[in-house]
Design goal:
Elements lengths: L10 H6 L1 H14 L7 H5 L7 H21 L7 E2 L4 H9 L4 H15 L7 E5 L3 H5 L6 E8 L2 E6 L1 H13 L4 E4 L14 H7 L12 E2 L6 E2 L6 H9 L4 H10 L5
Parallel strand pairs: 1-6
Antiparallel strand pairs: 2-4, 2-5, 3-4, 6-7
Helix pairs in contact: 2-4, 2-6, 4-5, 4-6, 5-6, 9-10
Length: about 250
């Protein structure tokens, strides 16, 4: 998902790994149809703050890292991705073509920009069942990452109140550095646009098992059409559930 980026990331690998560099160039070419900026220029630039830039850049880096790992003998037995990380995971598994992956990440992040400045997200170190008692209709459970790791999204004022309440109760809560509310009701405002923009996406059955963080279950990636990628942005990220499913099925890191 978003948040792992830093200025200067991937530059050393561009110089030291021909496999990484070649795959990144393919990602850059795939993105060209959908963006008005250069992937390599952005990676070498001073900032990664724009929503509609950072998500495609992260996608390209994730896809290229997976290709480099494969070249070094690290091949996935199963694949899982967190929130927008599922777009890269779908490409790595073979459920989306590189071009379709570029379409989803570039056009969806552009559509998201209309929500900028109207929301936010907060990470809370508390079990989701207890955390739900703190929420009102202005907030949603955005992601369940583990037994005591949950992300909430919603209106900025409501999130301020949540942080204050957590601090009073000795519960760790910190803002995620974004100004929009993914995985909340706010996303419903762009549903029709996303379904239209992503209608050309042609998912296919992957050659590698794919565990969805939309459902928390193994799925046939042929269902990952425009509607799926809307739900991936709107619904709670069921990362803990997906991780437990993979562990129960015998997969290990």
């Amino acid at each position: 998902g978003q948040g792992s980026q830093w200025v200067g990331m991937a530059l050393e690998l561009l110089e030291s790994s021909p496999v990484f560099a070649a795959r990144l160039a393919e990602c850059a070419a795939a993105l060209e149809s959908f963006v008005d900026w250069s992937l390599l220029d952005v990676l070498r630039g001073p900032s990664l703050e724009r929503l509609d830039v950072v998500q495609p850049v992260l996608w390209a880096v994730m896809v290229s890292l997976a290709e480099m790992w494969r070249a070094n003998g690290v091949r996935p037995a199963a694949v899982v991705g967190h929130s927008q990380g599922e777009i890269a995971a779908a490409v790595v598994a073979g459920g989306l073509s590189l071009q379709d992956g570029a379409r989803v990440v570039a056009l969806r992040s552009k559509a998201l920009t209309v929500l900028s400045g109207r929301g936010g997200m907060v990470s809370v170190a508390e079990p989701v069942e207890k955390l739900r008692e703190r929420l009102d209709p202005r907030m949603s459970v955005a992601a369940v990452n583990g037994p005591g790791s949950v992300v909430v999204s919603g209106d900025p004022d409501a999130l301020d109140e949540l942080i204050a309440a957590c601090e009073r109760d000795g519960v760790r809560a910190r803002r995620v550095p974004v100004d929009y509310a993914s995985h909340s009701a706010q996303v419903e405002q762009i549903e029709a646009e996303l379904r239209e923009l992503l209608a050309p996406v042609s998912p296919r059955t992957a050659g590698i098992p794919f565990c969805s963080t939309v459902t928390g279950e193994l799925i046939d990636t042929a269902v990952m059409d425009a509607g799926y990628w809307y739900r991936n942005l709107r619904n709670t990220v069921e990362f803990e559930k997906a991780t437990r499913k993979l562990l129960a099925d015998g997969y290990r890191v």
